[in-house]
Amino acid sequence: MTGIELSPPLMLAGLVAVLLLWVAWRLSVRRARKAAEATRRGGRLLSLTGRVLVGAALISGVQWLALAHPNASGWAKLAALMVPALFASWVLVRALTVVSNEDQLRGRRRR
Using 50, 70 and 90 to split pLDDT, how confident is the model at 59? Predict the structure, then answer.
């Protein structure tokens, strides 16, 4: 039984083919990571939008009930307006602070 005999040009062609396959695989992995990250960003935005809309509807509903109720006291109306405003302000300030710090940290990592 004879062994496999490969000529040097055939071995070089095989090596080049393996190298090209490896480069194509690496590029596809990078492309897939970028696509996955873009999908995650879009999903986060959609999720955040949904939560904001549900929260706004809930707050508006409670405020509408308190203001439309004919026997509601002044304190109930004030609480219906002030409590959601305080929570919204706290969330907004916290969200903007986290985003600004996060952008600075990401900028440092890339450099």
Answer: confident
